[in-house]
Automatic annotation (TrEMBL):
The protein's name in its UniProt record: Glycosyl hydrolase 6-domain-containing protein
GO MF terms, alphabetically ordered: hydrolase activity
Alphabetic keyword roster: Hydrolase, Signal
TM helices/strands, residue ranges: none
Keyword Hydrolase: yes
Provenance organism: Emericellopsis atlantica
Source organism superkingdom: Eukaryota
Signal peptide range in chain numbering: 1-19
Length: 591
């Protein structure tokens, strides 16, 4: 019997644009489309031919495999399949149609019986407990033998048996959060404690983000994952040289899952935003956007709204990512009202592969994603996020092409020279920067750039702002009620606009007396060959929270003074999204 499953081996069929080709370039460096099916245990009887036909029409598979490894569990339902091997059947069906097959594996959890046999593999919370899930699954930890050794046995078995076109490793990491979005803390398993002690001799292993050593632990644990990712990548490259790996920041194909969840605010730009960010960091690496046809986590049986589903696809292709349609179970068992539109977009992308091949961004402005602005990130700050989103919206509505740069990549991009692509970098309510980021930004400004800071930036014990390039020498006041900051300005700097002073606002009979005071709304100064601009109030937050377009107007006026000179002017309705790309013959417009 050849049926499969590592602990939870999800694999998937990928429908790609090209048929298996013989050229030596990576297949994933050209535009492609994908269809991902997360097969459930009960789907082992899937008709692979019908599914492959369906995928071919529109534009993957959980299988449990026949393992020799004693720590794996075979899906008992596989016995009901004639061949006993869903993966091989799928591979045959894919090959017969010129489709490629990628395997999706998830090593983040093990079944209870495996957990009980190998408790040393498990995630252990600071209070000593396991992380239990539905269906008796238990989270594991990357530090111990499961990740470091057994996974390589599994990959060895799979790659021996199947000539797959790629791997997608899902949810690999330290499992601080579980599927219920519950935060469990930093893993305290014996291997983590030992490795941390060796790394940091004697410093306390933190419990969570509130602890002093957490940042250091985060850097260390990211390093453990990077090293593991590198090993997986090398292993797969050796066994299946033509296969692409989707796993983490250094993989062959960068990945984003476009999805929607209860308890999460809808942000309709999320797909564009993420693709731009990934492309800014690694311009030459293909990006895959997996568009979920269902609501996340506990509500996966609920279909996504067809228009929102289409929006994921259309934003993906317009930003130069490869679109993937993602469903649960054998096609047509769970209704998906968005298939029609998604298929249309995927086919459009396939028919215009030339256009979608290599159209690097020509944006001269970068908006930095501030620390703590991503949902789920420790120290998640709604204020920084609101400022960032307000500016994102403003710039998009002004049709100003811009890239997104994650604050974590500032130093890297300065080192590679990628920061030099930009004329203007906007820091939305950045709060506290790492010292090396601040240094890199100051250096960049001095050599030619214009930095724009809106809202708060950290000041030291003497109230001196963290960026030396700023036109302010000192923060004078931090008025928390109105979120204003007042500064002492450097000689030679100039101001734009003045503030109105405070006056009574109630009862209505007394609403008068606000007069213009001698406080700048915006300060501008030179630094080396560059410029720095400081907004004394969070203008993006104002736009986001109140919707008053005067905030956007103010931002626009300042950009008019100091912004980059864009090659093309636009005169569209604000809600139209525009991307500008220089290579090829076409400028690309997305409605
Ligand atoms: C799929 O179709 C091919 C060609 O008709 C056939 O040989 C093969 O047995 C089918 N596969 C399965 C698993 O039914
Ligand atoms: C997880 O399950 C194990 C085994 O049933 C149980 O002993 C333990 O208390 C559970 N842990 C948590 C945190 O629920
Ligand atoms: C241990 O931590 C987990 C996760 O935070 C929590 O669910 C559990 O109640 C805690 N158990 C004890 C005994 O404190
Ligand atoms: C085109 O440029 C925009 C920025 O204007 C960028 O976000 C996008 O990824 C580029 N599109 C493609 C298809 O590469
Ligand atoms: C201003 O004060 C608030 C509230 O105390 C604080 O959170 C914030 O960090 C301060 N901002 C600056 C720039 O010091
Ligand atoms: C700025 O100019 C004022 C007035 O001319 C002068 O008193 C002050 O010393 C100058 N400050 C610096 C840092 O140069």
């Amino acid at each position: 019997m050849r049926l499969f499953t590592a602990i939870r081996l999800f694999s998937l069929l990928a429908g790609t644009v090209q048929t298996a080709s013989t050229d030596t370039a990576n297949w994933f460096d050209k535009p492609f489309g994908m269809f991902q099916i997360n097969l459930r245990e009960i789907d082992v009887d899937m008709d692979v031919n019908a599914t492959a036909d369906f995928i071919q029409d529109v534009g993957g598979i959980l299988a449990n495999y026949p393992t020799k490894l004693d720590f794996q569990i075979i899906n008992p339902r596989l016995q009901d399949r004639a061949s006993g091997d869903l993966v091989q059947d799928s591979l045959d069906a894919a090959r017969a149609r010129g489709l490629r097959l990628l395997a999706r594996v998830d090593f983040s959890k093990v079944q209870r019986q495996v957990a009980e046999a190998h408790p040393e593999w498990l995630y252990i919370s600071p209070n000593g407990t396991w992380q239990n899930h539905t269906n008796d699954l238990v989270s594991v930890c990357p530090s111990d033998a499961w990740y470091q050794e057994r996974i390589f046995d599994i990959l060895d078995e799979i790659t021996d048996w199947y000539d797959l076109d790629g791997f997608f490793v899902n949810w690999a990491g330290f499992n601080e959060n579980d599927y219920f979005h519950v935060y469990h803390g930093v893993c305290h398993c014996a291997s983590c404690k030992k490795a941390w002690d060796e790394h940091k001799n004697g410093k306390e292993l933190p419990y969570g983000p509130e602890d002093a050593n957490y940042r250091e632990w985060k850097t260390w644990s990211d390093g453990v994952m990077d090293e593991w990712t590198r090993r997986v990548r090398n292993f797969i490259a050796q066994k299946l040289p033509h296969a692409g790996l989707i796993l983490g920041a250094s993989s062959d194909i960068l990945f984003y899952e476009a999805n929607n969840a209860i308890h999460r605010e809808i942000w309709h730009h999320a797909t564009s935003e993420t693709v731009i960010r990934l492309k800014s960091e690694r311009p030459d690496t293909p990006v895959l956007v997996n568009c979920a046809s269902f609501l996340d986590h506990a509500y996966r049986i609920t279909s996504e709204d067809p228009h929102h589903f289409a929006q994921y696809h259309v934003q993906a292709i317009s930003r130069g990512a490869n679109p993937s349609t993602y469903i649960i179970g054998v096609p047509s068992t769970i209704p998906c009202p968005g298939f029609e539109q998604a298929g249309e977009i995927i086919r459009f992308h396939r028919a215009n592969a030339d256009v979608y091949s290599g159209m690097p961004s020509s944006a001269l402005t970068a908006l930095v994603m501030p620390p703590g602005s991503q949902v789920g990130e420790p120290h998640y700050q709604t204020e920084a996020l609101s400022e960032y989103k307000g500016l994102y919206k403003a710039m998009q509505e002004l049709h100003m092409p811009f890239d997104i740069v994650d604050h974590r990549y500032i130093v890297d991009m300065a080192e590679t020279g990628d920061l030099g692509r930009y004329r203007v970098i906007v820091l939305p309510r950045i709060g506290s920067l790492y010292d090396e980021d601040a240094e890199a930004l100051d250096t960049w400004v001095a050599t030619e750039g214009t930095v724009i800071v809106t809202g708060a930036i950290r000041t030291d014990d003497n109230d001196v702002p963290q960026l030396q390039s700023l036109p302010a020498s000192k923060m004078r006041e931090n008025i928390t009620d109105t979120q204003e900051l007042t500064y002492e300005w450097k000689n030679g700097s100039t101001g734009l606009f003045k503030e109105l002073g405070y006056a009574p606002f109630a009862p209505p009979e007394y609403i008068y007396g606000n007069i213009q005071i001698d406080e700048r709304a915006v300060g501008i100064g030179s630094y080396g060959k560059g410029k720095a601009v400081l907004f004394t109030a969070p203008v993006g937050w104002g736009y986001r929270e109140t919707g008053l377009s005067v905030f956007r107007d103010l931002f626009e006026l300042v950009l008019f003074e100091v912004g980059a000179e864009e090659p093309l002017p636009f005169n569209f309705a604000p809600q139209m999204e525009v991307t500008v790309n220089t290579s090829g013959n076409n400028d690309h417009t997305l409605n």
